[in-house]
Amino acid sequence: MSKVVLLDCKTYEVESIMDKMDKGIELVGGWDKYVNQGSKVLLKVNLIGPKDSESGAVTHSEFVRALVRILKGKGCEVWIGDSSGGAIAGIAPTAGSMKKSGLEKVALEEGAVIKNFDAGGIVTVVPESGLVKEMHLAKPMFEADVVINLPKLKTHSAAIYTGAVKNVFGCIPGLKKADFHKLAPNPADFGEIIADIHKACKISLHIMDGITAMQGEGPTAGKTYQAGKMLISEDPLALDTVAAKMLKLTVEDVPILKTARKRGLGESELKNIKLMGDFDTVPVLTGFMLPKRFSSSKKQNYGAVIKVIDFLKSRPVIDKKLCKNCNTCVESCPVKAIDKATKVINYNACIECMCCHELCMYKAVKLKKDNWIAGAMMKLYRGNYR
Ligand code: SF4
Ligand code: SF4
What we know:
By secondary structure, the protein is an alpha/beta fold. It has 14 helices and 14 strands. Helices cover about 30% and strands about 20% of the residues. The strands form 3 sheets. Strands 1, 2, 3, 4, 7, 8, 9, 10, 11 and 12 form a 10-stranded mixed β-sheet that branches. Strands 5-6 form a two-stranded antiparallel sheet. The chain has a two-stranded antiparallel sheet with strand order 13-14. It is globular and about 55 Å long. It binds iron/sulfur cluster (2 copies).
């Protein structure tokens, strides 16, 4: 039976987080089970792009600081690593993201080492799914003695939810990520790539920063939600099953988690998950907003009626008033569907991966219905559904 520790953790006050982490780890076996004096421990954060820690888009720097302090206190060598999505002027913005998030400062102050996955070498693996012949993953994931995954609790405009399972996508260095979006634009297929990464890397622990979550149109353009939670597990799927339940979602609602279940990444039945910590049952986050696309994905359950309104899909549209012409979306679009000069999207080429929406740091890529009737109908539908 998989264990998930769910803790109340209301602030980013470092001592308080350290205390909660220590208590939580004790429930899954204690720190000695995972690290020794001298262990090289990699903290795989969620550093989606150059966002500050208060945005709710990245693993909070104080959350990471707390864990660095605990591990340094145990005599470990601590690394902080990830590769950000998208591209600015032809390169992934990971170095800038480390600075903007405050993680570079944390590393400097606490004696940790930053591992920029775009510049730290690669290891070539043969993916189990066979979707591609080989996959290049960030070398630090294999050089560390222990890897701890530090996902953020967030919605995702394309994948509905993102947590411990999906957070490994950053193990693909730099601009190679776009190739995988192109190869598998459908979230269920994308889940095969995510599962391949989990199977190739050995991750000992998953500790989710669910203190300030992101709701609505995550993973970067949503709004913050004070969830006040920390989740700990050795099983990424079990952790996400519990986190999803807090958002009133099931594994069935999240295609990547369905694929993770199929690929045997962990436990996805709540009755087979031992919930520990501060809760006997999974609490629901009241009023938490899901992405607009969630209702579109649910519509598959309503057969013929829904086919009639299948044209209600939301599409990315660039708001020129908000656009700063940074061209991140243009460079990151896996099928080159965005015109650099006009910022008009060619919907015949668009594969609806939502990378442009995910990676625009200025919230200038909106998800809009095709027409006002569609918008109104979907609003009504969503209202009825919830
Ligand atoms: S839409 Fe966003 S990502 Fe694209 S050019 Fe404008 S500001 Fe940059
Ligand atoms: S336009 Fe946006 S949603 Fe469409 S393929 Fe390009 S990045 Fe993906």
